[in-house]
Design goal:
- The chain is of the alpha/beta class.
- The protein has one domain: Vaccinia Virus protein VP39 (Rossmann fold, 3-Layer(aba) Sandwich), CATH 3.40.50.150.
- It contains six helices and nine strands; from the N terminus they run ββαβαβαββααβαββ.
- Helix 2 links the parallel strand 3 and strand 4.
- Helix 1 runs parallel beside helix 2.
- The longest helix has 13 residues.
- It starts with a strand and ends with a strand.
- Bound molecules: S-adenosylmethionine.
- One of its GO terms (biological process) is methylation.
- GO terms for molecular function: nucleic acid binding; protein methyltransferase activity; S-adenosylmethionine-dependent methyltransferase activity.
- One of its GO terms (cellular component) is eRF1 methyltransferase complex.
């Protein structure tokens, strides 16, 4: 399937997260946060939609990383430099901005599905397993004045995640939000002053 959005056309693939409201809320937040030629990393880039829209509409340089090989291939086909890897484990260097639309659904053993789409959605029993792993390491990859721009959902516990981010020494601001039928989405910006 082709998706057209803001001067960008991307192709999606089976076994790769299909861009949804969360993807577009993150990209709109990132576009309003980027200043000039910044160096950006998108963790969990999926189809590459967020990175591709940023590349087409800003002067920033952007690289994606995803653990799903189909997502890495899809992002590459959509014109974005990409690495296949687990969160930040194989990332070297520092970035002005790290973006993440994480797998955030609280998921029990019984709810877990086979295949790569589960990896796009499954946030562990409380929805925060991947988010917390990411947050523990993100600071090592932020340049001076660097910030994390991350999507959160009411299904995951927005206050719990904000409190974790605060405990790691960041200031957190709400950037944008959107109410859907069964959840509230919010994008936060976290930075250390
Ligand atoms: C909700 S999807 C978001 C995809 C895309 N950024 C978007 O907004 O449409 C989450 C993405 O995170 C990736 N992911 C999950 N766990 C990961 C990990 N440990 N390391 C890297 N990527 C991961 C998934 O494969 C999936 O592509």
């Amino acid at each position: 399937m082709n998706i057209n959005y803001k001067n960008t056309t991307i192709k999606t693939r089976p076994s790769v997260y299909e861009p949804s409201e969360d993807s577009f809320l993150l990209v709109e937040s990132a576009l309003s946060e980027i200043k000039g030629c910044e160096k950006i990393l998108e963790v969990g880039c999926g189809s590459g939609i967020v990175s591709a829209v940023i590349k087409a509409n800003t002067k920033a340089s952007i690289v994606g990383i995803d653990i799903n090989p189909h997502a890495a291939k899809c992002t590459k086909e959509n014109g974005i430099e990409v690495i296949r890897g687990d969160l930040l484990s194989c990332i070297k260097g520092k970035f002005d901005m790290i973006l993440f639309n994480p797998p955030y659904l609280p998921t029990t053993e019984e709810e877990r599905m086979e295949g790569w789409l589960n990896v796009a959605l499954d946030g562990g029993h409380d929805g925060r397993r991947i988010i917390y792993r990411f947050l523990e390491d993100a600071g090592d990859h932020l340049a001076k004045s660097g910030r994390i721009v991350m999507l959160l959902s009411s299904l995951t516990g927005i206050e719990e995640v904000k409190s974790k981010i605060g405990s790691l020494g960041y200031n957190v601001e709400d950037k944008r939000e959107e109410r859907l039928m069964f959840e509230q989405l919010i994008v936060i910006v976290a930075k250390k002053e």
